[in-house]
Amino acid sequence: MRATVRRHRLRSLGAWCAAASALLAVVLIAPGCGERVFTPKPALAPQPVYCFDTVGHRAGAKPWILGGTCCCTPSEEILLDWKAHGYFADKSLEDVVALYKAKGIELASDTHHDCNNACPAGPHVVKGGHCMVPPTPGTENYEEVLFGQVYMPKDRAPKEYAEAVPSRDTAYTVAPKPAK
Amino acid sequence: MILNGRGVWLVALGAVVCGLAAGCEETNPQVLFSRCRYAECEQVLRPQIPDAKHKDYALVSLQYSSAALEAGDLATAAGTIAKAEAAMNEIEGGGDTAAVVVAESLKTYRGDPYEKGMAHLYSGFLALQREDHENALAAFRRALIADQDTRTENPDQKQDFVAAHYFAGLAYHLLDENENAHVHLEQASRYTAPNAMLTLGAVSTANTFLLITSGYGPFKIASGPGGSIAAISKPPDPVTQVRLECDGSPLGDAAFLDDLLTQAAAQGLGEMDKIRIAKGVSKEVLAQVPYASLFSSAIHAEADVRVWSFLPGRLYVWAGRLEPGLHTLALRCSGPDAGQAAACDQVWFYVPVKAEKLNFLNFRLAPFRQDVTDKVLVPVTALPEKKGK
Q1: Angle value at C-alpha B300, between B275 and B14, nearest 5 degrees
Q2: In which region does residue B224 sit, left (phi positive, over 0), alpha (psi from -120 to 50) or beta (all else)?
Q3: Which region, left, alpha or beta, applies to residue B197 given φ > 0 means left and ψ of -120 to 50 means alpha?
Q4: Hey, of A5, A9, A16, which one would you mutate to test binding to chain B, going by the most B CBs within 10 A of its CB?
Q5: Residue B46 exposed, middle or buried by CB count within 10 Å (0-12, 13-18, 19+)
Q6: Coil, strand, or helix at residue A70?
Q7: What is d(CA B228, CA B237) in angstroms, rounded to the nearest whole number?
Q8: Please, which residues bridge with residue A6 across strands?
């Protein structure tokens, strides 16, 4: 009988461990891991660096393809503004689109949209990829593209930025330590 | 059968052991998802989707679609979830007969009613984002039909999927069928705490709808005789209330819609479950009989514990009118432990509210998603350029 009970326990543990491997999520939110202190990102938004369709074109912003910060999908309206600021003076919309295509940059279209730059052409051009579809609002990628900066764990960041963490000034509010 | 609190923590302990033993956190989709690294999780899962004939095709597709959705890759999420829905609703599937004799996990995964319901709900929400109101309504109606498939003698448990009622009501309103909209919104109000946000008046004046989800969905553990009973539980969720702010001004609380553990636990036993439990009991009895215990190992009675584990635990909605433009949206979380709940807080900058259309956004609340401890700010210009084009 004792042997049977032991076998049953082992079986249960095995089953639990099997299920647990699919439930690693539990570990990371378990209060038992509770020494971690939450440091939220600064409550104030930095100044946007890049413009794209979702946030609207910033008048005078130089097109990405010319080394600028405008990642708006080329359109007649935007081309007018570019021309008014001295870019693509003698080019048509088709010419401009062709320039992007020639550089291997994929623009938003009826068949390529809402990918948040996770498509095979991604990441976004400003992050070193070849996708210029506007990122999805309310995601990390959206803010990274908009502000031109990425939060990275120290150990994965380029060495020269290892100490580039913003100071914990008033822009940060640190939540209280979880009660034990 | 619902697993008690002690059981949940034993599972957590098991998960620690398994996770550490695995030693592959950078490529483990579960770990990446739980650390809110949704885009990386999506990339890791993409090549893991098996052939459409595989028994786990729908399950892996659902996991993948969850990662894509939370990563903001809405196009992929919509396409993948549509394929998963089709696979879950296929009448033909492999392994059903074999599952009577051998392990139930050999069956083609089709999901429990709550999992089907959630697949349809997400599908409908993504259709709303595309302004495809007809298909959105069809999806929400499929979610309600899935709820009716819940094996229970309590009729209320067959029609208490509040989120599906709410969004079906909204879709009917957008299709100018306000009588039907009213019926569904009333149903939504019937099964959750009364909230003015769940009325036709509120729905018809709102221009922004936020689907807010928190925590992690139910999981199953094989227990009972021969592991034949799937005990169900849910990881603890520190969030019980979500307050919204727009540009620093309070917008009020999000309305609580559903707890997926309640939805999942409503599912009773079917014929296959009874056969499996009988097999489990036989296995246990045989194991105690001298010389017959050898035969017991040939009996496979283990319950199928496969679940769509990337689902959230709780669903909320916020609907209201926001000024068109770009806003800072803050989601402030509270719960029994203020510190733990606050770790789920989120702030999103430059969220667009369009004047010419309705705005649908979804937010997944998860602990430490926006934690910047030990992180550094790196300009995008310092990131390595992608090779290949």
Answers
A1: 110
A2: left
A3: alpha
A4: A16
A5: middle
A6: strand
A7: 28
A8: none
For residue B97, tell me if it sits in a domain.
no
- CB < 8 Å to A58, chain B: none
Spatial distance between the Cα atoms of A98 and A94, rounded to a whole number of angstroms? 6
Distance CA B78, CA A114 (A): 10
Kindly state whether residue B95 falls inside one of the protein's structural domains: no
CA distances from A175 to B82, B240, B252, B308, B322 (A): 40, 17, 21, 32, 28
User: For residue B145, with 0-12 CB atoms within 10 Å meaning exposed, 13-18 middle and 19 or more buried, which class applies?
Assistant: middle
pLDDT digits (tens, 9 = 90+) for B130-174: 999 999 999 999 999 999 999 888 988 899 999 999 999 999 999
* Residue A85 Cα to chain centre, angstroms: 30
Q: Which phi and psi angles does B334 have, rounded to 5°?
A: -140, 160
Highest-scoring range by mean pLDDT, A164-168, B23-27, B385-389 = B23-27
- Select the residue from A12, A26, A50, A139 to test the B interface by mutation, using most B Cβ atoms within 10 A: A26
Beta bridge partners of B229: B223
The DSSP letter of residue A131 is B
CA gap B202, B206 in Å, rounded: 6
Interface of B with A in 56-95 (CB under 8 A): 68, 71-76
Is residue B289 situated within a structural domain? yes
Which residues span the domain enclosing B234?
Answer: 2-90+102-387
Q: For B274-297, how does the pLDDT look when each residue is reduced to its tens digit (9 = 90+)?
A: 777 777 777 677 677 776 666 666
Which pTM was predicted? 0.86
Is B347 a member of any domain?
A: yes
